[in-house]
Write a structure and sequence with these properties.
alpha+beta, Nuclear Transport Factor 2, Chain: A, four-stranded antiparallel β-sheet
């Protein structure tokens, strides 16, 4: 919890368990963990279909619906196993590939993991901003997480409006602005 500072104000701060500096760098889970799920689905599906088929048509609880469900579960397991490929490129390497490809000096950047296509090919989506303050350009770069190739990129002038912290009003200017807003209402304002 935040502690009051010497002026008696309570400052908002990130809890220790969420502070990246406290717990270390975040490691994205590898896509190859899907193989575990795939193997389990396949094994349960094959077991269910085999059990239902071995008991014959007289079984009450293990019938053709269980066979169909077992086959579908086994197929889903095969798909999960095939789609669970290990990353060759982590988020830092994806950021480096994106910075090299956008054509301007990068200030802030962030990476997000997504998937493309039927085989759920892992892809890093890297958002980059130019190094100026405020940033003049921004870009989105898609980097393949299996081979590091840049798949697509979009670069544009930054349409966002930014308030520069360097030009923030001083305390005296803020007091003057507050005094101007507390003046009597102008005629026709209803006040």
């Amino acid at each position: 919890m935040a502690e009051p500072d010497e002026l008696g104000e309570v400052r908002d701060e990130l809890p220790e368990d969420l502070d990246r500096g406290f717990v270390g760098a975040y490691k994205f889970p590898d896509n190859s963990r899907r193989k575990i799920t795939g193997a389990l689905c396949f094994a349960v599906g094959v077991w269910a279909a085999t059990a239902a088929l071995s008991l014959g048509s007289d079984a009450v609880l293990l019938n053709t619906g269980v066979v169909t469900g077992g086959v579908l579960l086994a197929l889903a397991g095969i798909y999960q196993f095939a789609a669970g490929r290990r990353f060759a490129v982590n988020e830092n390497e994806a950021l480096v590939a994106a910075v090299a490809d956008v054509g301007f000096a990068v200030g802030h950047a962030s990476a997000q993991l997504g998937w493309r296509g039927w085989m759920s090919r892992p892809t890093w989506r890297v958002l980059v901003y130019s190094a100026e303050d405020p940033p003049e350009r921004r870009g989105l770069v898609l980097v393949d997480a299996l081979n590091g190739a840049v798949l697509e990129k979009w670069v544009e002038d930054n349409p966002e409006t930014w308030i520069e912290t360097a030009s923030a009003p001083t305390a005296a200017e803020a007091d003057e602005a507050d005094a101007g807003t507390s003046a009597t209402a102008a005629p026709g304002d209803g006040g």
